[in-house]
Amino acid sequence: xxxxxxxxxxxxxxxxxxxxxxxxxxxxxxxxxxxxxxxxxxxxxxxxxxxxxxxxxxxxxxxxxxxxxxxxxxxxxxxxxxxxxxxxxxxxxxxxxxxxxxxxxxxxxxxxxxxxxxxxxxxxxxxxxxxxxxxxxxxxxxxxxxxxxxxxxxxxxxxxxxxxxxxxxxxxxxxxxxxxxxxxxxxxxxxxxxxxxxxxxxxxxxxxxxxxxxxxxxxxxxxxxxxxxxxxxxxxxxxxxxxxxxxxxxxxxxxxxxxxxxxxxxxxxxxxxxxxxxxxxxxxxxxxxxxxxxxxxxxxxxxxxxxxxxxxxxxxxxxxxxxxxxxxxxxxxxxxxxxxxxxxxxxxxxxxxxxxxxxxxxxxxxxxxxxxxxxxxxxxxxxxxxxxxxxxxxxxxxxxxxxxxxxxxx
Amino acid sequence: xxxxxxxxxxxxxxxxxxxxxxxxxxxxxxxxxxxxxxxxxxxxxxxxxxxxxxxxxxxxxxxxxxxxxxxxxxxxxxxxxxxxxxxxxxxxxxxxxxxxxxxxxxxxxxxxxxxxxxxxxxxxxxxxxxxxxxxxxxxxxxxxxxxxxxxxxxxxxxxxxxxxxxxxxxxxxxxxxxxxxxxxxxxxxxxxxxxxxxxxxxxxxxxxxxxxxxxxxxxxxxxxxxxxxxxxxxxxxxxxxxxxxxxxxxxxxxxxxxxxxxxxxxxxxxxxxxxxxxxxxxxxxxxxxxxxxxxxxxxxxxxxxxxxxxxxxxxxxxxxxxxxxxxxxxxxxxxxxxxxxxxxxxxxxxxxxxxxxxxxxxxxxxxxxxxxxxxxxxxxxxxxxxxxxxxxxxxxxxxxxxxxxxxxxx
Lengths: 410, 410
Hints:
Two copies of one chain form a homodimer. By secondary structure, chain A is of the alpha/beta class. The first copy, chain A, folds into two domains: 20-41 and 291-402, Aspartate Aminotransferase, domain 1 (Alpha-Beta Complex), CATH 3.90.1150; 43-288, Aspartate Aminotransferase, domain 2. Chain A is built from eleven helices and 17 strands. Chain A has helices at residues 43-57, 74-88, 102-114, 129-137, 154-166, 190-203, 227-230, 258-264, 275-315, 344-349, 380-398; strands at residues 29-30, 97-100, 120-124, 141-145, 147-148, 151-152, 173-176, 206-210, 235-240, 252-255, 320-321, 329-333, 352-353, 355-356, 370-374, 403-404, 407-408. In chain A, the strands form five sheets. In chain A, strands 2-10-9-8-7-3-4 form a seven-stranded mixed beta sheet, with helices on both faces. In chain A, a hairpin with a 2-residue loop joins strand 16 (403-404) and strand 17. The longest helix of chain A is centred in the C-terminal third of the chain and has 41 residues, at 275-315. The radius of gyration of chain A is 22 Å and the shape is globular. In chain A, 54% of the residues are buried. The interface between A and B is large, with 108 and 108 residues.
């Protein structure tokens, strides 16, 4: 708008990121981002919850942190305690629970707690980009842990820790998403969980457990207890309301014993997480969590089915999907000859955005033929049309897939 | 709670802050913190606003940033644009407005934008602690600008800039709270505003204008236009909803031209500000801002009167108060022989917390006999009782004030 009247170029600090572009609305086929299904927001339930909780506690809004301390609204912490005990086997008093401004703030805080430049951090070989970016920004070197359809391969990790030790390297922590892994959507079995904790204790490596997707399980799927439930003494637990309810509400939580919590709290620099978001979610979920999640997970599973059917139809045998046990994304492997990074631009020109594998992996070596597609936000028709468009773009760029919907291309 | 099963001491990063103490409820006489009057939270108004805005836009909660981009809920940005044009003379399109997670996030971002270690930053000699702490944490050296009852003394600043230039030092920015200065609660007159901008342009120094308290003006008090209104080309403007409505809602805003905004946006690391807080405040204030503020400012002025009367009664001629033109705090000067830092502990033992001058000033040299008392949250009776208790503590520690309520002590 207005021109500057001083030379800001002389004033900027060193090492600023590139300027942001002007914001543009989402393209037609938006298969990225941890968004949810807009039709599943319980609008009337949130309105009732807002009225009820504001009449009871609204006057407290006049005070920073509601006058109740920096760890968050006690009603929401109690809900987290109850939910995590019932569903994840975690026994934690609300003094060990911190509400964060999204799980991203928890990621920031825990990273700052543990990472010095040059430290080694172990992450799953395919891994949440937002976590890897944060670790790398603090100067961490990432080492990828081998995954199979059930998550971390323990024998490989044991060897990796021994090898690192032989080099004199003690990793600071193991970052893992054991329940609905991002992006493979697997669940780590109980025996592997015990073995993982044994290794962490043996090598004095902390476990950073991210369970942002653990509420999104398909009906009939059972997850073993959280790692934190098995040994709170070496695990820091992270959770979120972004996936179970709504990401525009910035609400996550950290569970950790007081030794860790007392170190984390000074790193929460925002004078408290937004109180209305906290209060309304506490009130709504205290009464409606099971029914909301039961319904939401049914809807998400249908959308996944729509997406896997579309991928099978459009890509045929060229695409190999990991089988999600819940969540909002599908991790797809294409033939090794394809580098998905070359598809990004032509896909964008066709209105398609997806996560190229190398952005969701420690190394491009075993991920350049992989991609992540998110299915919670788009409608079923958009999923069908978008996957078909993506197959068309892929064929035009690579000659693969040769057949779509049992019909040869060309 | 649970003991650790690994040695976290080997894992913590370098330079962590001290561990947090367990949270304890506020003491009886809590005269610190930017809290508001709990009785003035418009509970029914917020409930109505929540219902109305959720019915209209609630489904958007399913998407990060409501699917509307990283600068915040457009309805709230439009309200900020309208309010700032009407009351502060600012003409800014909503593209130049960023909603932040409290004004504290804006402070963080603007500091990171401009401060390299070793840089000089000019702040008012008596200054908001949260701002000074942030600048210092990034390695800035603070230089205090002389204040009188109308804010920055321009002649002194001109000399200071010339002296700095002679030493080869160009300050990065001038941080100022021109409208209800914190802690002196003064308002900078129009001619000084023009002169300040002239100096900023002459010396190529940015102006960081913090107007967190500018909505809290006593009836009949007129503030000149914001510095940003006078020259958006060298000013970055910061505002807040913490003081006009509620600090537990974490909502502030930055106004800046696109060159600056595009540099600030990548520094907002929280994936968006809490949406429900934004939506409800937009809806409520779009309809009720003037009536809410008119009423709130009347209540605050009465509380200020209660406090100044109590200070006069209890401290007599030993206390000299700056005369607030609005806001929520009173800046008091005691005789030069008193070091208020020595009162902190005995006051705390009597249940009193206040801001000792040196924490609210660039230097202890001219502030060790000053203190800041906040009056918005405590009741009038608490204000009266607490000030009387503080005078008693002060007398016991220093022999001053000799008389309280026209009665000699001893």
